């Protein structure tokens, strides 16, 4: 053991680490205090590595995102990739899938993806099999695929009811049923579902949308309860109006019926429009170990929309 100042000693590696923190370009007004003990040195070493070699929050995780080519899905794919995850997306918009894959390649990321309609059994099977073959396993499933309908209840048809249920509820059922067995086999897995503030605060002219999302919402909570003790975490994100093609189309449809006639009305309800990246940050929290004790939760990303 080498002697270092005032008779204190520590291993050469720890001493070197402490010295590096003195000369490295750390953004502080003054160098850290000389470590008083071996514990202080270990803490300083941890600080050094956290500054110069930060651990990415989803390092080596594999993620499948349905409805992942645009809007919140695409924003989440970007954020997850930046945090070290290997990401695969499934979306009905083939052009959007290919466009996002090209954008990822420009940035040096390898994004897997295909065109698939996960509201059908065949489409869900294709998405799962292709993603699993590409990634090797699926650690995180983000059930984000869904559609919107704004229409007076008495004008809605049985076909529209089936379409909303298929896309917003059955798709999540099909994908979760496919992915969950391998998660149970490993004893660990994370499921995330995109719900809506409409399960808490019903919206005019969206009876079918609210019903289909509510069905998916309660299924997710029941899954969390059923599989909690087998290492599965299952949580819900409930956004209000988000600046996406989906969200803007919803606002346009509502305005056509005289509801929420101005942007000021939306701002009055939630302060401003939500950005897709803000929802993606919540998804990152739920996918990471930072939420290790969060299960069966409903996180409302709505800036008090459902609180007033």
Provide tags for this entry:
alpha/beta; 308 residues; seven-stranded parallel β-sheet; 48% helix; 9 strands; Rossmann fold
Describe this structure in words.
By secondary structure, the chain is an alpha/beta fold. It has one domain (62-301): Rossmann fold, CATH 3.40.50. It is 48% helix and 14% strand. The protein is built from ten helices and nine strands. The strands form two sheets. The protein has a seven-stranded parallel β-sheet with strand order 5-4-3-6-7-8-9, with helices on both faces. Strands 1-2 form a two-stranded antiparallel sheet. β1 (2-4) and β2 form a beta hairpin. Residues 1-12 and 14-24 have low confidence and may be disordered.
* Main sheet properties: 7 strands, parallel
| Count of the separate structural domains | 1
Level-2 CATH architecture: 3-Layer(aba) Sandwich
Mean pLDDT: 88
Distance between the termini: 64 Å
- The CATH superfamily is known as NAD(P)-binding Rossmann-like Domain
Q: What string, H for helix and E for strand, traces the elements in order? A: EEHHEHEHEHEHEHEHHHE
Question: Rough shape?
Answer: globular
From the helix content, strand content and strand pairing, which structural class follows?
A: alpha/beta
Residue fraction in strands: 5-15%
Oligomer: single chain
What name is given to the CATH topology? Rossmann fold
Helix fraction, binned, reads: 40-55%
| Sheet with most strands: strand arrangement | 5-4-3-6-7-8-9
Radius of gyration: 24 Å
Q: Give me the number of helical elements.
A: 10
Low-confidence stretches: 1-12, 14-24
């Amino acid at each position: 053991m080498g002697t270092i100042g005032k008779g204190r000693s520590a291993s050469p590696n720890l001493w070197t680490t402490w010295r590096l923190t003195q000369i490295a370009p750390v953004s502080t007004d003054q160098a850290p205090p000389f470590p008083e003990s071996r514990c202080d040195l270990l803490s300083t070493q941890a600080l050094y590595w956290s500054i110069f070699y930060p651990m990415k929050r989803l390092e080596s995780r594999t993620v499948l995102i349905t409805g992942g080519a645009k809007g919140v899905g695409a924003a989440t794919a970007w954020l997850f990739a930046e945090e070290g995850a290997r990401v695969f997306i499934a979306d009905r918009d083939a052009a959007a899938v290919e466009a996002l894959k090209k954008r990822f390649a420009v940035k040096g990321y390898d994004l897997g993806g295909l065109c698939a309609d996960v509201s059908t059994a065949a489409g869900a099977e294709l998405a799962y099999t292709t993603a699993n073959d590409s990634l090797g396993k699926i650690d995180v499933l983000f059930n984000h695929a869904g559609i919107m309908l704004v229409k007076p209840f008495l004008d809605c048809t049985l076909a529209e009811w089936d379409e909303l249920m298929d896309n917003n509820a059955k798709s999540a059922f099909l994908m979760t049923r496919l992915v969950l067995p391998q998660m149970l086999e490993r004893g660990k897995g994370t499921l995330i579902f995109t719900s809506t503030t409409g399960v808490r605060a019903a919206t005019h002219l969206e009876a079918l949308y609210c019903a289909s999302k509510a069905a998916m919402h309660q299924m997710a909570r029941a899954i969390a309860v059923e599989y909690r003790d087998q290492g599965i975490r299952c949580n819900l994100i409930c956004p209000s109006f988000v600046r996406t093609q989906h969200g803007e189309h919803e606002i346009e449809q509502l305005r056509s019926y005289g509801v929420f006639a101005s942007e000021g009305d939306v701002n009055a309800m939630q302060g401003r429009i939500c950005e897709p990246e803000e929802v993606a940050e919540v998804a990152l929290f739920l996918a990471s170990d930072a939420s290790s004790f969060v299960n069966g939760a409903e996180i409302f990303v709505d800036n008090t929309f459902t609180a007033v």
